[in-house]
Amino acid sequence: MSKVNRRKHVMNEAYWDDYEMPKENQSIVKVLKSRGNNLHEITTPNGEEYLVSMPTKFRKNIWVKRGDYILVEPIEEGDKVKAEIVKIMNKDSIKYYKENNVWPKQFDDSKKHDNDDENDLFVNTNRAHMKHYDSENDSSDESDSDSDGDSNK
Asked: For the segment 97-122, what is each residue's pLDDT rounded down to a tens digit?
């Protein structure tokens, strides 16, 4: 199988495109951060945090970022890595799960808080902060200086 065909099949398998409910042993979790080496730190609806692994067939083809929701399946081996990624959720899957009352209620409220935190994600400390001036203050300063110049004449 060529690389292109393989990637196409892997993408179809990894992303949620079928309307299938999660099995009893699968759970919906949120990605907190990437730990490298195809490991991701996640949080469950209960607030428990642990590592999940990316299956070998998804590596180099699929990327998961902070804030994504994924479907995981527990694995027996390992103390730190407790689950493996099964599916990556998109907006349609989240909507479908909410309609069928499968979506965890704890993740509903977190969406509002995530938008507030986006502004504080990255602050570039390599550049000096530039002062921002209001255009109203600038125009009033110019008019004051003009009036001062007129009074001297």
From this structure: 999 999 999 998 644 444 444 555 56
pLDDT at position 114 is 47
SS3 sequence of 37-78: CCEEEEECCCCCEEEEECCHHHCCCCCCCCCCEEEEEECCCC
Say how far apart CA 102 and CA 108 lie, in whole Å. Answer: 12
Helix (H) or strand (E) holding 88: strand 81-88
Domain CATH code at residue 95: 2.40.50.140
Residue range 126-151, pLDDT digits in tens:
776 655 555 555 554 555 555 555 55
At 11, the amino acid letter reads M
CA distance readout (Å), 95 to 16, 90, 152: 12, 9, 71
Tell me which H or E stretch contains 85.
strand 81-88
In a domain, 144, yes or no: no
